[in-house]
UniProtKB/TrEMBL annotation, chains A, B:
Keywords: Hydrolase, Lipid metabolism, Magnesium, Membrane, Metal-binding, Sphingolipid metabolism, Transmembrane, Transmembrane helix
Protein name according to UniProt: Sphingomyelin phosphodiesterase 2
Pathway linked to the protein: Sphingolipid metabolism; Lipid metabolism; sphingolipid metabolism
Domain called Endonuclease/exonuclease/phosphatase: residue spans: 14-273
Catalytic activity: 1-O-octadecyl-sn-glycero-3-phosphocholine + H2O = 1-O-octadecyl-sn-glycerol + phosphocholine + H(+); a sphingosylphosphocholine + H2O = a sphingoid base + phosphocholine + H(+); 1-O-hexadecyl-sn-glycero-3-phosphocholine + H2O = 1-O-hexadecyl-sn-glycerol + phosphocholine + H(+); an N-(acyl)-sphingosylphosphocholine + H2O = an N-acyl-sphingoid base + phosphocholine + H(+)
Encoding gene per record: smpd2b
Length: 427, 427
């Protein structure tokens, strides 16, 4: 696969498999199709999402034993993270980061909480280069107009960029694939790209073959109901293959393609999402200037408003809990009166009494669990906000030109007759 | 603080503050003492654990505004992680990794689950050097003989080493402080040191002043009940300051000290744990050979037996749940008989009927929650085991001498008349 001396190229595949056993349509047939495709195409790196059943993963593993001898399934949460990676190159190390926020357990029909959404990392060697490969799946967006999971997804995107940034310092190249459940211009997506310097295969390549505007959830896919996509009639782009090089290695996207809703000779497509394939080329180079970890500053206005929501929910839970407690005390008081006035008749029908008591206890238990849960949510949101503030503070310090290492300032002289500008638009 | 050209030294402080408001003895007075100590001593880096209340953190922050202008409180779980860092140098970035296993919510009197134990990271610059500073607190050991939390602590130690290893590639030096709740020779501790190459200040310094054997939980501390320490009459060493340099920087521990149970002019000590102070010296150097990331292979036999325990617990929960369900059906059947045979008398006393129904529902709910919880526990254990297998596999490959980069082999010639040995004892 080496095109010339020292240059290597990798083909990366990413697909949200929609693999809910017994619920997703044609699940076993689609897995068979996916297995056939992968063993035929022999991509270097295969990043799969929503492989909810470990059995399906093990079947794939068996089928791909020759084409992709190395693989890893990331376990997390109640059901699993659904993340899997297959690789032609040996996987040297893996690491999983579970997002601190991921939906609500009582929204069982959405199921995200039970999945334990996470980002999985695998360290592989391609020739002499170390590649950190990430696969992730963020919280689904069920309704764009009234998206109650927006704070969760933004915090997930924040944690994703942090995880990638902090774990990739030793890597020559970084490859990220997965279903981000975010449109290209969504806040979380901008946060991710701005802070990590990751580039979008679709935007970087001159050689694209696939759906209009790179869409990965399209109206032409028979598994997609047209209603879900409103107001984006043709479809949306929410799956990505992102990449970046390092000070030691340049990375380019030579070509990129997506499936287009239907597959020749097959009655249905691989999944409800389209599959992505990117051909990435890596070239070692001598460092000339520090990497492109440009950070943008206008990104942190997002979480403050979310904190309100979570603390209001917790407040409601507390209030309901207190009402339940008051009711229980009232009932006990009513029961205590005839017990104290010995011999008096019990004024309360016995059945209603027990039912009411059971109701009170149920309210108390539920509100207690909710209180705990919302407290955890609030803590995660506050934690993300603190970290954002810190990042902005550190950046402002840099911009103000305090005695911190400033990679760009040494290369450039200030224009004559002018004070050195503290604000550098390129940073 | 720079001793000579390019050499820097940092004083690091670590203390488990035992800061449970209203429950820990003399909590406000002890915080005042800790604040006084810190503002007087002006350590470069202060790592605190068990600062359970954010208010106490904010009070400390106010008090240390001059001596330690930069600080961060790590939020996590229901109560918080209890982790805080105060620093003379600007904190550029922080990141929190929550351990996937951390006790049981129903063991409320142990409280670990509610704390959301984690490892916090802060990136700071000391002169021109980047230091990654970690603060953590692992699950408590309540009974060494029958330690039901052992698997949790081992998985936490595994995740800690992974987190440190993967996030510290870009750092010149690494500093870790905290209450590991593990003795020096415990499996988790060996895992941590073997995989990261971290060195123990206490073992590395020639200049130690403190309790015998570096103990940090000692019988002489008035907050410690002698019973807790049995069979270690004098005390145990469970708090650590660990460090390592990098290919660019050497790191040494010049001196180390601990408090000794009582403080002159004060009626009681700072906490039930002893405080640690280490003076670390950093020297930039030109890389001569790759770092000392020696890995030992005999460490992964630990989790397999833990998996049994967790799956047995889940099995018990399932069985109890099924019994609850059966009981509920039985009751409904008994109730249905007179309802079907119209006019027949209800044979069941109404009150007992409702009580029994409530009991069944409670059993079902509880076992359902437990089932979910144990499934998550099992997944985390399996995940850690998979990662350990992978690490061992990658290592075995290396030892076998497959075409992987072998840092040592190029420097050395095989002895004459002998085949190049595939087994390199130094790797």
């Amino acid at each position: 696969q080496n095109n010339n001396f020292n240059t290597a190229s990798v083909r990366v595949f990413s697909l949200n498999c929609w693999g809910i056993r017994y619920l997703s349509k044609h699940c076993p047939q689609r897995y068979a199709m996916i297995g056939d495709l992968l063993s035929k195409e022999e991509h270097d790196i295969v990043l799969l999402q929503e492989v909810w059943s470990e059995k399906d993963f093990l079947n794939l593993k068996k089928k791909l034993a020759c084409s992709h001898p190395h693989c890893h399934y990331f376990k997390s949460g109640v059901i699993g993270s659904g993340l899997a990676i297959f690789c032609k190159h040996r996987i040297h190390d893996t690491f999983l980061y579970r997002y601190s926020l991921n939906g609500y357990p009582y929204m069982a029909h959405h199921g995200d909480w039970f999945g334990g959404k996470a980002v999985g990392m695998a360290v592989i060697k391609i020739g002499s280069m170390t590649a950190n490969v990430y696969v992730t799946h963020l919280h689904a967006e069920y309704c764009r107009e009234k998206d109650s999971y927006l704070p969760h997804r933004v915090v997930q995107a924040w944690e994703l960029q942090q995880f990638i940034r902090h774990t990739s310092a030793g890597a020559d190249v970084v490859i990220v694939g997965g279903d981000l459940n975010m449109h290209p211009q969504d806040l979380g997506n901008r946060l991710l790209r701005a802070y990590t310097g990751l580039r979008d295969s679709y935007l970087e390549t001159a050689n694209f073959d696939g759906c209009e505007d790179g869409m990965t959830l399209i109206a032409d896919n028979p598994f997609i109901s047209k209603k879900e996509l409103v107001p984006f009639e043709k479809g949306i782009r929410i799956d990505y293959i992102l990449f970046k090089g390092s000070s030691k290695t340049d990375m380019h996207c030579d070509s990129m393609s997506t499936t287009k809703g239907s597959i020749p000779d097959h009655p249905f497509p691989y999944s409800d999402h389209e599959a992505l394939t990117a051909e990435l080329r890596m070239e070692p180079h001598t460092p000339t200037e520090p990497g492109h970890d440009k950070k943008s500053m206008d990104q942190d206005s997002g979480t403050l408003m979310f904190l309100c929501g979570a603390s209001m929910m917790r407040y409601t839970a507390t209030r309901t809990g207190i009402m339940g407690l008051a009711l229980l005390f009232l009932e006990l008081a009513i029961a205590a009166v005839p017990w104290l006035a010995l011999g008096a008749e019990q004024p309360f029908p016995r059945t209603s009494f027990y039912l009411l008591a059971a109701l009170c206890c149920a309210i108390l238990l539920t509100t207690f669990l909710l209180y705990i849960f919302y407290t955890m949510e609030l803590k995660s949101l506050q934690g993300a906000e603190d970290q954002m503030r810190l990042a902005v503070g550190s950046l402002q310090e840099k911009l103000r030109g305090f005695p911190l290492p400033q990679p760009y300032s040494t290369h450039r002289k200030p224009p004559e007759g002018q004070e050195p500008s503290a604000f550098d638009p390129e940073e």
